[in-house]
Amino acid sequence: MAVKKGRPASAGARQPRGGPAPTTPPPARLPREWLLLAALSVGLYVTRSHAAKVVGFGDSEALYACYALHPAPAYLDHPGLVGHVARALGGGQAPTPSATHAFTAVLATLVPGLAAACARACGASLRGAAGVGLVTLATPMLSIGLFALTPDLLLAPLWLLALALGVFAAREGATWRGDLGWLGLGLVAGVATWAKASGALLFAVIGAFQLLGGRAARRPFAAWGALAGLVVASPLALHEATHGFPMLRHRLLETQTGAPLVRGLGALTLGQLAYLSPVVAWLGFAAMRASYKSRHAEEPGERFLALACLVPGAALASFMLASRQAEPHWLGPAWLGAPVLLAVRSAAGVDVARPRQVSTAIAVAALFTVAGHAWVLSPRFLAWMPASYEPRFDIANELYGWPRALETVAEAAEPGDVVVGPHWTVCAQLHAGQRNPVGCATPIRDDFDGWLPRAAWSKAPRVLYVTDNRFDVPASEVLPGYMRVQERHVSIYRGGRRVRVFGITTLERSAHATR
User: Fold this and answer.
1) Is 259 helix (H, G, I), strand (E, B) or coil?
2) Of the given ranges (3-12, 320-329, 362-371, 392-401), which has the lowest mean pLDDT?
3) Rg of the chain over all Cα atoms, to the nearest angstrom
4) Max Cα distance, the chain (Å)
């Protein structure tokens, strides 16, 4: 058999007519924004891990730690998921601040990546999705606020997952994949309702999309998905109904003290500028305006995202205006979808914000975030504050001092003593950090009235009354008929300034008490 001489086929393959052989395109390079997102996420995780070792519970966070000691479907302020998570972290007891923050440091660090993945799943470009992650990472409301174990930390990843599922279901339309998307969205909405009451607004988003999306958007399985989610949330609703809706009464009636509209307007204006940073707040309002224009968009995914911003935004803003206890972070769920919508519209060729504006927003928000972390973690900045600085209004001081105060309480307390505070913020720190029964003298009803009724602790033979200099409520006013046996004081200093003074007063019931 003759063998032809010549070059090997691999070296001498015949070129096709009409030009050189087609070459394989180089693989797409990951935009540098993703590398920046990864690097900043690692930096924030390191910072949070350090913070977990040096800071204690914030007052609200301490209350959620107390939920672990009293498992229930719901409490006066929030549904019960945060309590179940706290109980798991504490092994059936209230968790320690360090164990809690080791968990929250991981989950909070994952949220910007989840936001970027959500944006990519919704149709954003690689660079646009990374931008969503960077905005989420830099915004103080999220980068600082999600460090604590709060309902918001649990709601954020659920809300992002719901956005991705909703866009998927809307785009798949009349297919089995779309039906699975609606089912998944309904189930996530049910779990989100357990995380925070505002999670129930996802059901409203589903309904609004079915009503405003046109005939092509209406899918019977969307109703079945919502029904499945309502089944998940039904134990919570049943608990509220059988107990006379205590969470609703507490939120809408019992806490409504103060000047009407003033707090809500402040939270919706100055509060957003502080919690989001001014440029991100502007970006968010631009996204809300874009959402309004997109509520009837032909593209169903964009329409769903628009409604996922508008419906919660309108509902939460109205509630904030009606509430006299409004907080800026209540609007958080509406803002989560805003950068996702901007990135999706940008990928479709509609630029609501220019890249330079987004970069400026990220940079300014990052400055706010760095300043917030520095203020909490480095006490040296307190030395620069003017004489008019009032420590009791600085919520960073909540995170320091309680370990020393709790040590003093433990030294003074005897078995059988009841510990009483003037307000739930004090009582929560006490109940989360020591094992004696805790009663609370908050001016209105709080969770402690269910855990240890006032009629019980007001007749205890011996009481430790614990307060700090935020509350000008003497022991004689809270516990008439008791004699003072001993009084101790604990002063807490940061940056050379005294920021908190705790008073621990031992009281014994007088033999002549009439109550």
Assistant:
1) coil
2) 3-12
3) 28
4) 124
Specify the DSSP element, H or E, that contains 505.
strand 497-509
What are the φ and ψ backbone dihedral angles of 421, each rounded to 5 degrees? -120, 165
| Per-residue three-class SS string for 73-86 | CECCCCECHHHHHH
* Contact of 304 with 358, CB cutoff 8 Å: no
Tokens 């109904």 map to which residue? Answer: 241
Rounded distance between C-alpha atoms, residue 514 and residue 106, angstroms: 54
Among residues 448, 453, 437, 430, which one has the least CA distance to residue 77?
448
Q: Could you give the CA distance from residue 463 to residue 508 in angstroms, rounded to a whole number?
A: 6
Give the model's pLDDT for residue 28.
Answer: 55
Separation between Cα atoms, residue 62 and residue 69, nearest integer Å: 12
What is the rounded distance in angstroms from the CA atom of residue 256 to the CA atom of residue 283? Answer: 32
Partnered with residue 465 across adjacent β-strands are 420, 505
Among 411, 431, 434, CA closest to 423: 431
Q: Side-chain half-sphere of 95: how many Cα atoms within 13 Å?
A: 28
- The pair of structure tokens assigned to 239 is 């608990």
Q: What is the residue-wise DSSP string for 88-148?
A: HHTTTSPPPHHHHHHHHHHHHHHHHHHHHHHHHHTT--HHHHHHHHHHHHH-HHHHTGGGS
Are 49 and 57 in contact by the 8 Å Cβ rule? The answer is no
pLDDT of residue 483: 92
Percent of the chain with pLDDT over 70: 90
**Residue with structure tokens 């305006």?**
289
pLDDT of 67-123, one tens digit each? 999 999 999 999 999 999 999 999 999 999 999 999 999 999 999 999 999 999 999
Mean pLDDT for the stretch of residues 357-363: 87
Global model pTM greater than 0.85: yes
DSSP conformational letter for 173: -
Residue 9 confidence (pLDDT) above 50 = no
Instruction: Tell me which residue of 421, 408, 405 sits closest to 486, measured CA to CA.
Output: 408
d(CA 450, CA 460): 17
pLDDT digits 0-9 by tens, 149-185: 999 999 999 999 999 999 999 988 878 898 899 999 9
Measured at the CA of 206, the angle between CA 201 and CA 212, to 5 degrees, comes to 115
* CB-based contacts of 482, cutoff 8 Å, min separation 6: 463, 475, 476, 507, 508, 509, 510, 513
Distance from CA of residue 479 to its chain's centroid? 37
Q: Rounded distance, CA 343 to CA 115, Å?
A: 11
By three-state DSSP, how is residue 497 classified? strand
CA distance linking residue 397 with residue 56, whole number of Å: 10
Contact status, residue 213 vs residue 303, Cβ threshold 8 Å: yes
Residue 11, pLDDT score:
42
CA end-to-end span of the chain: 118
